[in-house]
Structures are given as structure tokens and as C-alpha cells.
Amino acid sequence: MIRELPVPEGLAGERVDSAVARLLGLSRTQVQDLAAQGLITVDGQVAGKSDRLEADRLLRVELPETAAKVEPVVELPIAYEDHDLVVVDKPVGVAAHSGPGWDGPTVVGSLLAQGVAVARSGPVERRGIVQRLDVGTSGLMMVAKSEPAYSVLKQMFRDRAVHKIYHAVVQGLPDPLVGTIDAPIGRLPGEFKFAVTHGGKPSITHYELIEALPGAALLRVHLETGRTHQIRVHLAAIGHPLVGDPFYGGDPKLAARLGLERQWLHAAALEFAHPVTGLPVAVESPYPADLATALDALRQVATGSG
Is residue 43 annotated as part of the catalytic site, yes or no? Predict the structure, then answer.
């Protein structure tokens, strides 16, 4: 297997062994072995393990079949960053971290490939992770960079001190237009699917109408708790599944008409006190193209155009 990619700006000045290890998820020892065999080149020239990299040079690594599995990476948009934390605007199709059954790109792996240092606390595959977003959900996700920030942010999420705002398009018009869903969520036996269950974990979701649409509604959703699939489960439970979410009762024909291949759900805003300085931080994210297009299609139905 051959990997070719330009050297990211964030890895300029790094040693070859250190940078390639971070980019491809290998150990430094593995990379040093590759360099010793002449399997790493920069702009066509064989690179030594201690050579320093320059930004935008073409890095080529030849990986023998025995090398560790390489995790794909993507360029993550950065919505906010300082010494202690980074907020990424996660695209759909990217997992928060690696795990069983997932071989696609992750937030942790992609940040490291971009030269963004993350906190070392937590399991190796979850370094710096203080919150998660589903693979099929886009929007803002926070990762700790410093150790003090990691500890404080973990506690802030436990204490519900981070204000997480989502926008969601659901089928139908909820009644009331502003409401709270307080219902326990648990995993269904033998399935990776969740539901409101008697023995589930306490879960609270607040919502309010932003815009009424033909056969649908755009909602502002505030999570008080953070259970897996919470928004999807809670809104489905009150009879208003997310548009584009057949897994929890969404109409696949409606999704097809809108050209939507995933649930209409976006982590639109984060508001919190900085874990080190205490100063207020507010970050917002615009809708990605697929969600914006689907929303526009619904609006065109309302106006009779299109």
C-alpha cells in the first residue's frame, strides 16, 4: 500500500518518524524501520527518520502488508482553537474516535494528522475526547488539547455546564411548539438501537419551533443530558421522527425527494465558560450543503416554487 499526501502546515518542522507516525497511526519504531528501508520519500528523495519536514512537500510512504492498518483521515474545519481546546466542525461520515467495526476517519486521527496536539488523557483511541457526535451527525464537537482542560471539560459535561444547541428537521408539527421531553432511554436487547424504556437512563430534551414547513418543522433542540441517539429517539417517541432517519421511523420516500442520505440533524452551537480562563466562549456552525439543500427544497414547496 502506498500513501501520498502533502505535509500539513501543522507538522512543518517535525521529524519524519514523529510526523509519519501521527499521520498514519503507526508507532515511531515502525516508521523508523520504513525509513531505514528507504520506503519514505519527500518530493521523490529518500527521507531519513530524523529529517525535518517542510509544509506542502509531497510525502510518500510505502507500507508493507505487515504494517499496521492505516486509518483514513480528512481535513477537519476548525471552528475555534486555543492552547487548551479545539472545536471542530465535524462533517458527516466521521466518527469521534476509532472503535470496533469502524474503519473510517475519526476526529482524533484527523486532528493528529493536521498537526493539532490533543490531550493524552483517556484511552489511546479516545485521547482528548470530552464529547461525541454520531457518525451521521454533523456540526460542532469539542476536543481537549491540554491536560487541565481535559479534566475540567469532562466535569463540565457531567455537570451539564456546556450549552449544546442542535437544529433538527422533523416530520410534522410538534404540539406544543415549545416543549420538554423527559423520558428514560435504554438500548433494545440484541440491537444497536435505543428507545424510551422503563429501565433506561434519565434523559431530558428541550425543543422549540424555529420554522414551520410543509409537513415538517425546523426545531432548535437543547440537550440537558447526552444519551446515545437521544434527539432521534425522543423526537420519534413523540411522533415526530427526524427527516432522513428511517432507522427511527423517518419516511424514506420524503428523504429521497429531498436528496437526503442521513438524518437532518446538526450540532449548530456550543456555549460554555472556558475551562482555564473562565471567560465565555460561543461557537456557531452553518448548515452543511446537504442539509441546506434539503431545507431549501422544503421551503420551495411552501412558496409554491421549484
Answer: no
